[in-house]
Amino acid sequence: MFNGKKPLVLAVVVALAAGAAYYFWPAADQAAGAQAGQRPGPGGQRAGGGPRAGGPGAAMNPWTMPVPVRVVTAQSNDLKVQLKAIGTVTPLNTVLVQSRVSGPLAEVLFKEGQFAEKGQLLARIDPAEYQVALDQAIGQKEQNQAQLKSAEQDLERFAKLKEQNTIAQQQYNQQQALVNQYKGALKSNQAAIDAAKLQLSYTQIHAPISGRLGLRQVDAGNLVQANSSTGLVSITQTSPIAVAFTIPETQLQMVLDAVRAGETLTVEAWDRAEQLMLAKGTLTTLDNQIDTATGTLKLKAEFSNSAQELFPNQFVNVRLNVAERKGAVTIPQDAVQYGSEGTYVYMIEDNKAQVRNLVLGTVDNGQIEIKQGLKAGEQVVLEGLDRLRPGREVEVLVRDQQAVEPAKKAPQQAAQRPKA
């Protein structure tokens, strides 16, 4: 019978052990807290409910550990003084190719989007009607030439008869007038021939300028009217090409000083994201008046565009270089902080962050000029700025994520931690 009760006895022993552990465990925890100099709270918990003093939590507290930062050295560079604006690419010339005569469009000799040279044959109008008009003008001239020849022969005979006094002077004068009339008619016939030839030449449509062709507006076989508003095709000159942009009135004097000094100002065209420079040109034109509605002045720059980097009506970011600062002290623009007392950067002194106020200058491709407050060779904090405060201890990191001057405070705290 004792063997049958063995499982029940074991269950009772386990229950008693668990109860004793539950009863005596808070007391042991309170004793450990008292040794650590802390007062236990209700239920055996420390007041505040945090980690034990000197334990791992205190050593790894992010608000007391040194802040990892990256630094950058101030450089002495040649800095461009640039004015930024948004510009529009505009062709120097745009032409709508139209037919100067009416008639069936016999042939289209171009492809849409291709480049055409000035004088290139683009299309033909059926020339039959205009060839007939030319032949008619030539025939009329030949008729008048025959009549003139006959009249001149009669005039020579009348001249001999006049010398013999066999005809009246009036008859001779009438014949002379007839000869002159035929000579005048020949000049009119020649003008008609020239006009007919001109009309016939208009049946061949040539490119008036060099440029890129647009979309075809009329297909072969259609009846084309002279000077139609739709035209046949448009041509835009793309090389060279212009970019139009505006600058505020407050920046005008800087540009005028450079222009009056005879300097050639370069202009850069960048893509929308300002990550890629598309082309570089020169400033060519300043408008003659400021727009009173916007307080801006229109400018135009010209680009060779030999590689077709710019496209008509494209929006670009414009950078107008008006001057260059030699030996300027520069740092990355991201290192500069802005506060109620002005602009500043964080310096590292004795492994602690300190504030240095600055006077800023020109910005060029992410680099900003420091007019006052910093010298070339000094280091400023570039990354890790969000947790920095004046006097906060830091550790400077290099690119491989290793600390150049690792903080020793945390390992020392871990080594001096009292054992529970």
UniProtKB/TrEMBL annotation:
It is found in: Cell membrane. Residues 134-203 form the Multidrug resistance protein MdtA-like alpha-helical hairpin domain. The lineage of its organism: Bacteria, Pseudomonadati, Pseudomonadota, Gammaproteobacteria, Chromatiales. This is MdtA/MuxA family multidrug efflux RND transporter periplasmic adaptor subunit. It comes from Rheinheimera marina. Residues 34-60, 400-420 are annotated as: Disordered. Residues 240-323 form the Multidrug resistance protein MdtA-like beta-barrel domain. Residues 1-23 form the signal peptide. Residues 93-235 form the Multidrug resistance protein MdtA-like barrel-sandwich hybrid domain. Belongs to the membrane fusion protein (MFP) (TC 8.A.1) family.
